[in-house]
Fold this sequence. Notes:
This protein has 303 residues and is an alpha+beta fold. 40% of the residues lie in helices and 14% in strands.
Amino acid sequence: MPTTSPPDGRAGIDADLVRRLVSAQFPQWRDLPVTPVEKDGWDNRTYRLGDAMTVRLPTAPGYVPAVAKEDQWLHRLAPGLPVPVPRVLATGVPGEGYPFPWSVRRWLPGDTAERGRVDDPARFAASLAAFLRALQRCDASGGPVAGEHSWYRGASPAHYDDQTRRCLALLDGRVDTVRATAVWDAALAARWRGEPVWFHGDIAAGNLLVDDGDLAAVIDFGTSGVGDPACDLVITWTYFSGAGREAFRRDVAMDDATWARARGWALWKALLVLTGVIDGDPVRAAAEQRVIREVLDDHDRHA
């Protein structure tokens, strides 16, 4: 088997590498065209393989545990969910200079859920809430307990306490750190006391596919696991507004403590990103500042 030098993260993954991997390990598909997807992720690179499949390759060691996790669990979760999720067809091994396991999956049609593609945000919010409730009803027995493999989604936001407080110190005077600290403290105090349930871990527009404005599929379960579902509510502030936000809040039907932890998850991520972009990317900074303001206002209204 010919090899090349190990790829350097995303930069070393390209269509030629995918062709070599497929040809060497799955020769039945060697003649199918390989093309990049229109919108790619960061944790993994994805390529179309013919018309009906995709190839998905982790970009760094921290994303590798997701390969085995999704291979093991997605087919078990799928029957209990109202929309399709990725179906793993084959799992590849390191080769051709690429150092990680990788997978071949069935292609799921649809467009990412950018706001302009969703005609009725309230209906879309209700369908997403129904998906999350169905996911939480799936049997969690033996499922992967929240931890390093999920980047601690599904665990307590306390894992990121030091990081959050450093961000608050760095942003003092540039965001309302007094109110933000109150939101963060409330999130840490609102412990999850229920039985572990399945969570997705990265419910965001890029992982939600739509067809004619309706939820058509949910992808990228790399940060999924069993634990606290509060992390799946962050989309309340990062995506929804107005009637869509109210519909999602109503239909997802979570208690006040779960909403407090959800605000903590949203605040942590927005502060972390804002710290990195506030002096160099005004557009991204403004978006994160908006999320922070809306999280703080939500706390004032509902806490």
